[in-house]
Write a structure and sequence with these properties.
The protein has 261 residues and is mainly alpha-helical. It is built from 13 helices and 4 strands. It has a two-stranded antiparallel ribbon with strand order 1-2. Strands 3-4 form a two-stranded antiparallel ribbon. The longest helix has 17 residues, at 2-18. The radius of gyration is 22 Å and the shape is elongated.
């Protein structure tokens, strides 16, 4: 019994010590670069030194480290440095600059590494010109097809973050953007992640064009199956999830009222 407790505690220690270790967001990547002194100031939240280095020594606030192509704004975001993020933006950091490795911008990084649906940094980035409809592309090697990821698709995959979805839509995020094939969009992402509150909100937007097909199972295979919103919902049982069951019923009722069920 004692041995089991020891192993459990050890696993917890390993989890909490490693969960924020992200190799692409390490300040050491800026060693031997022209912005090393600025990276040290960002790491230590030395706002006055950051300002001096950028304004007086003309150090490039948008410099991207050579391995992954991340910039200091991205590192400040991942490390949850709100005041430093604000300072970097005020000094001219570009929230739409993409890295080399994954085509991410500071805005998509903020959405991916958001803690507890805290929108502070997302709002800061939008206030400083972040593109709410930015997208990155993935190549699905098995089918040689392109899959897109948008800010809204990232938000709609986050459970209990419907306020984030609403905020992005209010700021101009396009509900009807195609991510993969016709019909596969942010609504699909919300349904796949059982985020039915977000799905309901997106479905009921006046600008939403509700597709007949939102998901194709075994696409291109012999058992290909095309699913509507109703099909996806009726496949799932939410008996142990009363909140999602309520949203499921609301979605189905709404679709019926507009003759889309």
């Amino acid at each position: 019994m004692i041995q089991r407790i020891y192993i459990f505690i050890l696993m917890l220690v390993m989890f909490y010590s490693c969960k924020h270790y992200l190799p692409g967001y390490n300040y050491k990547l800026f060693q031997d670069t022209p912005v090393y002194t600025l990276s040290k100031a960002v790491e230590s939240d030395n706002l006055s030194e950051m300002t001096r280095l950028v304004k007086e020594e003309k150090i490039d606030v948008n410099y991207r480290e050579p391995k992954f192509g991340n910039n200091l704004l991205m590192l400040a975001i991942v490390n949850q440095k709100k005041e430093t993020v604000q300072a970097l933006l005020d000094l001219g950091a570009d929230p739409n600059l993409k890295n080399f490795y994954s085509d991410d911008t500071s805005f998509t990084v903020a959405l991916k590494y958001m803690e507890s649906c805290n929108m502070d940094k997302v709002k800061l980035l939008i206030e400083h010109g972040a593109d709410v409809n930015t997208r990155k592309k993935y190549l699905r090697e098995a089918t040689n097809e392109t899959y897109n990821e948008t800010a809204l698709s990232l938000a709609s995959s986050k459970k209990n973050c419907v306020d984030l979805v609403k905020y992005l839509v209010a700021k101009g995020a396009c509900v009807n953007d195609t991510l993969y094939y016709k019909g596969y969009g942010a609504i699909t992402t919300a349904l796949i992640h059982n985020n039915l509150e977000a799905a309901l909100y997106l479905i009921k937007q006046p600008s939403t064009e509700i597709p007949d097909i939102v998901y194709i199972r075994d696409k291109g295979g012999k058992d290909e199956q095309k699913l509507s919103i109703t099909d996806m919902l009726e496949e799932e049982s939410y008996s142990s999830d009363p909140e999602n069951q309520k949203y499921k019923e609301e979605i189905l009722s709404y679709l019926k009222s507009i003759h889309k069920r």
